[in-house]
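Collaborator request, handled under Task 6.
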Amino acid sequence: MGRPLFSTLQPTFICVGLVLALFLSACANPNHRRDQEARSGNSTAIYEKALAAKADGDCTQAITGLERIAAFGRGFEIAQYHLGDCYLRLAAIGEPDQKNALEIKAANWLIKSAQSNNVDAQLALIPLYLNGTAVAQNPIEAGRWFLLFERNPALHTFSAATLDPTVKDRLYAMLTEEDWLTARALVQKWAPVIQEAQLPDRGHGSGIDDSGADKAGGQRGQRRPNATA
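Structure tokens returned to the collaborator:
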């Protein structure tokens, strides 16, 4: 007498059930899938994971992925902004002996991004130059970045960024009419910097050396950044 049909098909049902369960688990947990892709070197997954960490307030974790993506240069200016912003956040809550080094890293990345016309980075530079944070205090330079920020087409299309009213009041209080004329003249001469594109190297990591220096941009060590390029 033959075996019942159900008994014969039972192993098949079990296998199909296991596969379906794994599939549904992956679909229900996109973070797990993203983590797996990030570990495999998927640049998009690395970037998404870094942004998610930043959104959760974990800039320490976010920086690892952002450094890798920001080093790609042209086309990744927004990652450079997020990296600089993360360094500023860590400087604000970190140990006093690390504050200056973190602020300098932040300024380097923000300047690189702002020079390539990223509107959020341009906004971030205004208080840095007003306060002399990691850069020489220069109200005219702050005014220049304010004017560039205000005229950036991305401000009205891709970004809802606004300047803190307190910072704006200080800016207008510190700059004379002559200062504004100088800032406007600098804006007229300004053109965005086209960064070198560094294609992702899947076999050799991020393109950033152990000191955190950006090989694509040539900024190394803890030098004060220069925004006059």
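The cover message to the collaborator said: "The chain has two domains: 42-116+194-217, 117-191. The two ends are 88 Å apart (CA to CA). Please let us know whether this matches your experimental observations."
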